[in-house]
Amino acid sequence: MSYETDRVMLPSDSVARPGNLPRYCTRHGRPATRRKDFALQSKVRIEGRRIFANVFSQTERLAQHASKVRVIDVKGWPLCAVCVRTRTSWLAVASALFFGGLAALVGSLAVGAFTDGMQWLAAVAVGGFVLMPLAAFPFVRGSMGRLIGAMTSPDGESVIVENPSAAFLAELPDHRS
């Protein structure tokens, strides 16, 4: 394991085994109330232009992404009550936006199919159409990587944790105070 003042690198084989992670939250240093299994994906930078992209260039970009992305399976990451509540809240907002927008879109189209002269239904349909992609913002805010401050290293060999709590650091096996 590698340590810096504001960053710690945990080997991927260590985080992939249940029971290898501390009992305390990464962010807050509070005791974990829940443990979460998830897959952490590396961020990939793709070369090439996006403007006026055709099918072939998009296919090339997808292949480039697939060859560069690294995924680490994490088992039993500790989450405190604050982290669980934050994640639940953001995912609830994302669900409300997405499913509310879907209901508004489909509902207005269904009602519009059976009635005449209701132009306001078009505004409801457009509003629903706009709400669905807006759900991505709270969904990202509630994602595990963002919540715990972790990301996969570019080579996929470790998980990098930004600004871990002192309690989390203290329980790591190779940590020297």
Plain-language structure description:
The chain is of the alpha+beta class. Helices cover 47% and strands 18% of the residues. The chain is built from 7 helices and 6 strands. It has a 4-stranded antiparallel beta sheet. A two-stranded antiparallel sheet has the order 3-4. The two termini are 14 Å apart. The mean pLDDT is 84.
Question: SSE layout and pairings?
Answer:
Blueprint: E1 2-3, E2 7-11, H1 12-15, E3 34-41, H2 55-68, E4 71-79, H3 81-114, H4 120-134, H5 136-141, H6 144-148, E5 150-152, E6 158-162, H7 166-170
Antiparallel strand pairs: 1-2, 2-6, 3-4, 5-6
Helix pairs in contact: 3-4
Total helices: the number is 7
What is the overall shape? flat
- Largest sheet strand order: 1-2-6-5
Mean pLDDT over all positions: 84
Instruction: Give the biggest sheet.
Output: 4 strands, antiparallel
What class do helices, strands and sheet pairing give? Answer: alpha+beta
Helix share bin:
40-55%
Q: Count the strands? A: 6
Strand content: 15-25%
User: What is the ordering of alpha helices and beta strands?
Assistant: EEHEHEHHHHEEH
Low-confidence stretches: none
Q: In angstroms, what is the radius of gyration? A: 22 Å
How many angstroms separate the termini?
Answer: 14 Å
